[in-house]
Write a structure and sequence with these properties.
The complex is a heterodimer of chains A (about 290) and B (about 950). Chain A has about 290 residues and is an all-alpha fold. Chain A has one domain. Chain A is built from ten helices and two strands; from the N terminus they run ααααααββαααα. Chain A has a two-stranded antiparallel sheet. In chain A, helix 8 runs parallel beside helix 10. Among the domains of chain B are: about 140 residues, Alpha/Beta hydrolase fold, catalytic domain (Rossmann fold); about 170 residues, Jelly Rolls (Sandwich), CATH 2.60.120.260; about 100 residues, no CATH class. By secondary structure, chain B is an alpha/beta fold. Helix content of chain B is about 30%, strand content about 20%. Chain B has a ten-stranded mixed β-sheet with strand order 1-2-4-3-7-8-9-10-11-14, sandwiched between helices. Chain B has a six-stranded mixed β-sheet with strand order 32-33-34-29-35-36, with helices on both faces. The chains are: A mainly alpha (about 290), B alpha/beta (about 950). At the A-B interface, helix 1, helix 5, helix 6 and helix 10 of A face helix 14 and helix 24 of B.
Chain lengths: ~290, ~950
Amino acid sequence: MTPATTGTAAPGYAPHRTLPLKVEIVRQFKRRRTLVMFGLLMALPWILVVAFQFGPQASGDRQPSLRISDLASASGLNFAAFVLSVSVSFLLVVAVALFCGDTVASEANWSSLRYLLAAPVPRDRLLRQKLIVALGYSATAIICLPLMALLAGTLAFGWHDIQVPGTGETIAALDVLPRFGIVIGYALVSQLVVAALAFLISTVTDSPLGAVGGAVGLWIVSTILQAVEALGSLREFLPTFWNTAWLDALAPELDWSGMLKGASVSVTYAAILIAVAFRRFRTKDVVS
Amino acid sequence: MKRVAAIVAVLALVAVAGWFVWPSAPEVRGQEQTIAVVDGPSGDQRVEIDTTFFPPPGGEKAPAVLLAHGFGGSKQSVRGQATRLAQDGYAVLTWSARGFGRSTGQIALNSPDYEVKDVKQLIDWLARRPEVLLDASGDPRVGIAGGSYGGSIALMTAAHDQRVDAIVPSITWADLADALFPDATGSGPANGVFKRMWAGFFFGRGGGAVQGLETQGLGALTQRPQPLSADEARCGRFLPEICDIYQKVAETGRATPEAITLLRRSSPVTVAGQIKAPTLLIQGRRDSLFTLGQADANAKAIAAGGTPVSMAWFDGGHDGGDGEADWLHEQTTSWFGHHLKRDGSPVAAPFTVTRDGGRDPGTRQRIRLHPEADAYPGLGGTATTQVALTGPEQHVVNPPGGSPAAISTVPGVSGLLGGQGNTSFSLDMPGQSASFESRPLTAPLQLTGSPTVKVKVSGKGQVTLFAKLFDVSDSIQPPTLPAGLVAPFRVTIPEGAGSVEATVTLPAVDHTFAVGHRLRLTVATTDMGYATPVEAASYQVGLVTPALAVPTVAALAAPAAGVDWWVWALPLAAVVLAGVLLATGRNPARRRSGLRLSLAGSRPAPVGTTATATEGTTATVGASAGATAAEGTTTAAGAADTKATVGTAPTSLGATPAPGGRDGGSGDHAATASPAPVAHGANGAGGGARAKVNGASLTAGGPGDADVPLEISGLTKAYRNGELAVDGLSFRVERGQVLGLLGPNGAGKTTTMRMMMGLIRPDDGDIRIFGEPVVPGAPVLSRLGSFVEGAGFLPHLSGRENIELYWAATGRPVADAHVDEALEIAGLGKALERAVRTYSQGMRQRLAIAQAMLGLPDLLVLDEPTNGLDPPQIREMREVLKRYARDGRTVIVSSHLLSEVEQTCSHVVVMHRGRLVTTGPVSVLLSGAVSTNGHGPRLEDVFLDLIGEKS
């Protein structure tokens, strides 16, 4: 709408001022599921630390294994990498699907969506603000988890150089910190597709659980398809295929190619899914 | 949902159809036959060769490919490969070489007198086949491919028969004598160290035994050995002279001149200069039998004759490795495509090396890179890096009996164990080796070729030693011996000299030494794979110059694989597609309203003369094309039946305001404040044309009265199933009215209200609020307060937070909200601070009405506001609404309760089944009704009368 036409609007109304991010953040933050999810993500590293501390100790002269889980207690950095590796395939997917899948569908479920639209918050703007906030929460979750793991791991296992899974080589702790940034960055980008998928489903259903479950369900289907070797290189275009590409950032030789491909696939899906979400929602009859 | 299911079903159907229609590889059928050939030094020995011919599937003439099998195999072992080649459009002939499979004759090790003569006659046979393309009469277009034993027959035949047009020999030898009696000082096989175990496999398995060299894997072990006759057990199917010589050299471990002569007769390197067929040499990086050095000798000899040669080192060989079957097939077909079909296939680069590309980030599977170079540099590389080695002169002993021996590669076993990784099992015995080590590397070192080092050996007599180069990473992991290769050499210390110096050429490998790794040269006295002296002896081994010359090929350093094109293209395409999706979906509302507006020219004023009323209701694009409004009564398909009934609505509407006009103070508005529609009616074509312009640009918002709170015309909305929820509804509300929207359940009241809020898009017709058309998110909606179909609050927030956040979401100034006034109406008291999920229905209802009144909107739309309220609250609510309208604002209340409307509203719109039944001031409706039973007229009676359900 052009400013000229706002002359007919109520005084003080301007479409670009509707649903400020601050308001949407507050609206979402006080929700129980937001708090529970963050609580879980914050607590998980500590639970794992306890598990590693009290689990049966491996005998000292055993051949040192080089699996990521066996190296977890080697240092805080190793521990953070381990926590990320166990949570990226499911926990973070659920967290992202929750924040992005719930956002519109729950408003529809509460019937508050129609009052927002009649306020009026223009539909594109409503989606945009909600998407930004949901992505913000998702990103916070993805960033918080490894940081908390780093803190917990460092307190529990000390600040040492990282031992690379597989080869057992060590990289200096300070050298690996920027690599850790890459890992987190890649995790953010690779979860974009989950976010977009959940968001799209969120705009078409009134059931928040349906949106979250639908996104996670499709994610699982993709993971299963990925195991079908017969699909050959087609699998490279599955959104889950490059999930573990961030491991390359912790290899002695930083290899970008996998992460580039993963980011490419993720951005591709995300762009299209989000565009479809906006397109659908624009013309949708809101009957909830 | 149905549509989604349909789309999914269609996609599945397409996929299944695609699966069936997808061209499958053409079927190839082999024709078995025995071809009789004559060979022998004097051409008098008859041999039956067992063959299978795979004609090209197309039926046209095609180039032929002879596919040879490896040692111990037969034509069956290359069947799969043959089928694949035939599917690519070649006439393929496979055969069991003499002495193998069902062919008769004895093994002569690819001798020019025997096997080569056989293959020449197979080429003759091919020349007579109608399926085979000929270069000249009796000269078919033919290539030969094969591995190991089959690779050498390809080379030998190409040297002896100029009709051969291209060959792809793989993992084969150049000089059999040199391969079996290697000497790393370059003194030739006469001085060489006998490759005992491999030779044993090679000759021992040549007999009746079935296990072939290329029958790798554990499958070979599962076959039950056949019992052998005494003769077979001794010599198998070898020619007796070969058998005799082999037994002699195997016993002594030294190559006799006769043995060398015999083996050289079977060696391509002696005749390679005659090869004119372009040659692709494929040699395995994991091959301790026929090393890369063998292929290097072939390449040099063939290239010396001016023939094009390409060299590829792949991940495979007689010691296992991946095998890269697909890549080899690709290279082979591409070579034959270029030189036989001449279809312009890209020809292999002069030098290609398979390298480990780490693990695939997606599958975590090992991937391979194939860097290429424009020239084959040989084993000396294009440059040499000197790596300093340190280590004193060291004592080594040769154990008595040569046992225990160091292990580098165990022939036949390494392959069985599937030596996939770079590491190979190697073991040095204490006291038997001297080691010289470099400092940790500061930069990665890519070795490609044969390093050389100069050693000094002290002691006496003949000394047999084995030099190898380890990659030492750290103390945790054992050093790796690249490809498990050793360089055996024999030096003779002259009488009285005490020591001798020798330049040792280490095995050719392609290996990357990573940063921090060290190079370790080990010189050992024993190796399990070789014949070593049985006498105990002791020597000293030292370096003459403490340096190792490491050849490198910089041209290979850059891996050919860059970033895949789709990595950039895909997101870009997606963003473009997303842009298109958004752009095309941008304004269906605008297009629609444009349509509606172009109709607006012929649309009647809801209140107007009879002329406009009859034009009424419907309008199509066609009607607006300069036609007068009166013509515009034709309508789009499907709406035709509704039109007649719709037409009556405005008429009754038009009739009612006149008498009731004063009541709401709106009569004059009706007459004067809507000049535009009237003008259209009057101007006819002119008005229509102008409206069309308006419709196209919409910027003016079309004609509308900014003073009319709500004006609905021709509003139609169908459910998914096609049933009309709202059917051609038209009415108008004036300022200060409290309008009751009355109708039984399902009359379309709520749907109408949702359309007023821009939540649902009308199928047809138009809603204007203060003259502005209502589209989703239209700014004018900010002057509308609404409560439709229940409250909508965030249950986890308190009532006050909900109200405040809602107002914040509108983005309007807090001062405009009048929160306190609204909350007073809600009357929730302390409950306001509790989470909404704890509220009763009535409390939510009141809070929702308060929310609707936030900012005191000019038009308040309430859907069944008194539902769930108790009687005092209902009465209070009535007063609130009346008071609200008295200030010049407008209230629309829907209800199915007649009494409610009667007591609250000044005007009423009666709906039934989506249609307008009547409209007007409550008082007029009542006065028009006939008193039936002595009571005053009641709205209930009027209502039932109107909807035709009066009993």
